[in-house]
Q: What sequence folds into this?
């Protein structure tokens, strides 16, 4: 029981650390030479390897 | 009607909960020399995505994705670019804490697609839509926000804590933009419009049908990285939505919404200190002079509005946080056509050529704080008086936006045949973040303070104090998502000479339930007071105390059919005066393109007491019954995200039926009136409006609009029974019909230059 409690505590702490809402998020700006076609379809080559912003709160 | 988007510092329904994997959002951003590009992938069940089509700058019943940037990273000022799952664009400018200005418009590109994984969006936001510095390496404030309409969920990339005041200050960071240069921002939007107007005046020398053409131009010019000049030359506001006029029995003027875009877009600096009521420019001027029209003259044609000849706004903020705003507008002199006793026609100038000016300096300080100076100035040609009003303001917030103190001093100076200088001050402080908040306000105005020439004004000569507490819960509980409550105590005194005016209490409770319905319950109480305005002659009136209850219900607007409304009860402690109000609204969305709304409002008063007329110098009050019925219907058919038609019909009927008359005694109490019964003191007012508008955005920033308007207004000093008679009466009254077409074409100077190069 004691083990479980500690485990749960560690787990919840690590979750809280990974997605701490209070921490300011950063995204690296990427310059592009090719521009996407604004058609709503995300198949343009220029989008490959651009860092993703996700995990909305 | 659609709810506004001012929901930003509420993340709903569970603040701080990370989005589920199958509903996750993925964003990418790129930039080059001309624009930033946004990639958005919204995972969802594709059949559950809401995508109602509405006109631009509305959201409707739709999911959206947005990018919010703060290019100077000052944590106060930003621009938001929203696209709904129906492809409708919405853009807004953010300035001070929590303030959203959806009237800000830019020209940018976007497209959406609904696919098997949910929906996607791409945007191209050209630098001409943004203001930023010329620094080699820049960090911009950045946030993204997504809404899932059906579950009323709004999420952010960088967490926006609803218990912390402010939205832009809770942004993330976009780092390392290099070598971007702000472009020349210069655009022209010339327009042409044509009107046909019909009003059955049926007077000799006055045409029933008239036609006119207008032409003019809007110019937008980026003076430098931070400052923009907006100019409208010979503007045409003829297609703007009609005001919802009412029968006003109070001694104070009614404040109407500004519907003219030039005066609502990017005006946050000019609204500092509450000295600017833009309807003063042309729509509701504060000054007119009818002294040259005698009692034997008959007015043939009058002008209550003034023509706006041009208007200019220069505004922006330096990298060091100094905001500067300059506003100027000129309205034409206006003539009233008069016929004298011998039948001779002449024109009398009833409004002079008028110049309106505003100057604002606003320095941003740490923690969303600011210090500002505002000056408004009205210059009238000829002998009419001029007005000058200044304010020094401050707004200080503690670290983390927990506590605030703000306020300032104001001075008005009127210069005519006589001069008059008045003063006012405001002091407010309190705690604004957290579950428990409190505040204290003190507002003072002496008996000469008068900002009415450019501002909205009811009365001066008061010292009002308000103490309030609030308690809110943002974390969902068992049966609710959110809860707010407040209690305010107001104590008002006349300033000069000092005298008690009023003590009142009001309290409210608002709750959003799990099913996304919300309800608010308000209760108010006021002690007997001294009213120095109701009598119209400066005499005190011992105003009876009152008590009120109100219940407001708001539905989950995501449902195709939804309804809500309110029930109010108000009691006046004299002659058992009672007021009831029943208001019901219904919205029905037939499909993603067609929607209807129906609003019914019934508001009877029984045995109310108020001023009714003057007999010589004596102020006569009456006990009366009053009934107000207001019905409106609106419908819209949006063909595409660039084209749609919308119509609003409104009928308003309000009356006053006097039952007994009283004389206001010098001690402020009422005595039975012994004289002959005053005549012509009943009221019966009807107004009917149709506003139909078709809009087609045929090119970026360019629109074709067709408008049909019908307006009729009748005002009688006797009572007419029954709703149907009043409705048919107003429909058979002379109608002012107008049909118009307007074409506005947006030309970006850079595009023009590029095209020329190609040729």
A:
């Amino acid at each position: 029981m004691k083990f479980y409690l500690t485990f749960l505590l560690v787990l919840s702490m690590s979750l809280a650390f990974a997605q701490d809402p209070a921490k300011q998020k950063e995204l690296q700006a990427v310059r592009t030479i090719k521009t996407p076609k604004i058609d709503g379809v995300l198949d343009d080559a220029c989008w490959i390897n651009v860092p993703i912003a996700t995990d909305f709160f | 009607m659609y709810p506004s988007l001012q929901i930003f510092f509420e993340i709903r329904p569970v603040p701080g909960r990370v989005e589920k994997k199958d509903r996750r959002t993925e964003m990418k951003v790129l930039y080059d020399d001309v624009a930033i590009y946004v990639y958005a992938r919204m995972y969802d069940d594709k059949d559950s995505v809401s995508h109602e089509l509405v006109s631009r700058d509305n959201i409707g019943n739709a999911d959206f994705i947005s990018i919010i940037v703060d290019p100077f990273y000052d944590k106060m000022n930003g621009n938001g670019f929203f696209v709904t799952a129906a492809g409708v664009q919405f853009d807004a400018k953010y300035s001070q804490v929590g303030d959203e200005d959806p009237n800000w418009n830019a020209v940018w590109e976007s497209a959406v697609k609904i696919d098997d994984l949910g929906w996607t969006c791409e945007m191209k936001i050209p630098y001409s839509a943004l203001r930023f510095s010329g620094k080699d390496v820049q960090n911009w404030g950045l946030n993204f926000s997504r809404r899932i309409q059906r579950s009323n969920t709004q999420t952010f990339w960088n967490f926006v804590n609803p218990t912390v005041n402010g939205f832009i200050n809770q942004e993330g960071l976009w780092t390392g933009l290099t070598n971007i240069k702000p472009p020349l921002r210069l655009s022209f939007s010339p327009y042409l419009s044509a009107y046909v107007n019909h009003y059955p005046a049926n007077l000799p020398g006055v045409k029933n049908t008239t036609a006119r053409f207008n032409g003019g131009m809007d110019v937008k010019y980026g003076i430098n990285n931070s400052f923009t000049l907006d100019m409208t030359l010979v503007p045409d506001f003829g297609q703007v939505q009609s005001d919802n006029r009412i029968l006003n029995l109070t001694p104070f003027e009614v404040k109407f919404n500004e519907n003219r875009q030039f005066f609502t877009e990017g005006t946050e600096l000019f609204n500092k200190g509450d000295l600017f009521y833009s309807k003063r420019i042309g729509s509701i001027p504060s000054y007119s002079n009818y002294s040259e029209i005698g009692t034997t003259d008959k007015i043939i044609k009058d002008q209550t509005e003034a023509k706006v000849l041009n208007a200019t706004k220069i505004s922006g903020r330096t990298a060091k946080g100094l905001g500067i705003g300059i506003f100027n507008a000129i309205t034409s002199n206006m003539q009233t056509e008069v016929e004298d006793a011998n039948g001779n026609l002449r024109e009398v100038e009833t409004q002079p050529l008028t110049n309106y000016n505003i100057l604002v300096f606003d320095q941003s300080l740490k923690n969303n704080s600011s210090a500002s100076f505002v000056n408004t100035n009205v210059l009238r040609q000829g002998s009419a008086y001029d007005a000058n009003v200044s304010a020094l303001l401050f707004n200080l917030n503690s670290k983390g936006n927990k506590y605030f103190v703000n306020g300032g001093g104001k001075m008005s100076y009127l210069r005519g045949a006589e001069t008059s200088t008045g003063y006012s001050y405001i002091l407010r402080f309190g705690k604004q973040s957290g579950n428990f908040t409190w505040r204290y306000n003190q507002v003072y105005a002496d008996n000469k303070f008068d900002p009415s020439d450019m501002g909205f004004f009811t009365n001066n000569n008061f010292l009002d104090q308000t103490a309030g507490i609030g308690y809110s819960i943002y974390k969902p509980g068992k049966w609710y998502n959110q809860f707010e409550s407040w209690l305010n105590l107001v104590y008002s005194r006349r300033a000069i000479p000092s005298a008690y005016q009023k003590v009142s209490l009001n309290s409210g409770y608002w709750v959003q339930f799990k099913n996304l319905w919300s309800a608010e319950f308000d209760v108010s109480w006021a002690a007997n007071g001294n009213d120095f305005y109701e009598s119209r002659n400066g005499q005190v009136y011992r105003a009876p105390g009152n008590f009120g209850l109100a219940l407001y219900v708001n539905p989950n607007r995501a449902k195709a059919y939804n309804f809500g409304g309110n029930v109010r009860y108000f009691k006046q402690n004299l002659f058992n005066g009672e007021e009831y109000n029943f208001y019901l609204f219904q919205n029905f969305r037939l499909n993603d393109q067609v929607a209807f709304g129906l609003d019914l409002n019934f508001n009877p008063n029984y045995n109310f007491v108020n001023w009714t007329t003057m007999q010589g110098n004596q102020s006569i009050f009456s006990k009366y019954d009053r009934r107000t019925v207001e019905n409106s219907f609106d419908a819209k058919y949006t063909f595409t995200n660039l084209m749609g038609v919308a119509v609003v019909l409104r009928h308003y009927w309000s009356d006053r039926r006097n039952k007994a008359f009283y004389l206001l005694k010098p001690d402020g109490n009422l005595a039975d009136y012994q004289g002959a019964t005053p005549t012509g003191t009943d009221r019966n007012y009807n107004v009917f409006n149709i506003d139909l508008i078709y809009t087609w955005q045929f090119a970026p920033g360019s629109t074709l609009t067709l408008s049909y308007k019908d307006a009729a207004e009748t005002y009688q000093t006797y009572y007419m029974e029954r709703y149907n008679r009043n409705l048919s009466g107003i429909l058979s009254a002379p109608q002012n019909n107008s049909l118009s077409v307007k074409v506005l074409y947006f030309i970006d100077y850079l595009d023009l230059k590029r095209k020329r190069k190609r040729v």
About this structure: The mean pLDDT of chain A is 75. Chain A has one helix and two strands. Residues 7 and 13 of chain A are 10 Å apart (CA to CA).
